[in-house]
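Support request from a user on the community tier.

User writes: "When I paste my structure tokens into the form, the page sometimes reloads and wipes my input. The last time it worked, I copied everything first. Here is what I submitted, just in case something in the input itself triggers the reload:"
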């Protein structure tokens, strides 16, 4: 069974390494973690800082903004398609 750790725990563990200068193996033993897992967390933290570890089903702020833009574009394209169909219907009725 896979253990799940919350964002605060991951940040706490990573900051022990990054900010306090402790060794990964030492922190892993102290927190009862697999060193490889802790290495992944550190790598992810160094890439994204505080925006890392958003949780499953959630998006990072950058991805969320891009997703919202794409959704807005899809909605607008759908509205245009509906308006085009409506124009076609009204144009037929006027003949």
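"...and here is what came back when it finally went through:"
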């Amino acid at each position: 069974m896979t253990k799940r750790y919350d964002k605060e725990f991951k940040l706490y563990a990573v900051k022990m390494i990054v900010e306090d200068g402790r060794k990964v193996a030492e922190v892993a033993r102290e927190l009862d973690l697999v060193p490889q897992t802790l290495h992944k967390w550190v790598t992810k933290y160094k890439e994204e800082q505080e925006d890392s570890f958003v949780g499953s089903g959630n998006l990072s702020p950058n991805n969320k903004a891009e997703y919202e833009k794409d959704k807005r574009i899809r909605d607008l394209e759908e509205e245009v398609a509906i308006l085009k169909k409506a124009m076609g219907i009204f144009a037929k009725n006027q003949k």
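Agent notes: The reload is a front-end session timeout and is unrelated to the input. Helices lie at 7-18, 24-31, 35-48, 61-93. The chain has a mean pLDDT of 84. Escalated to web team.
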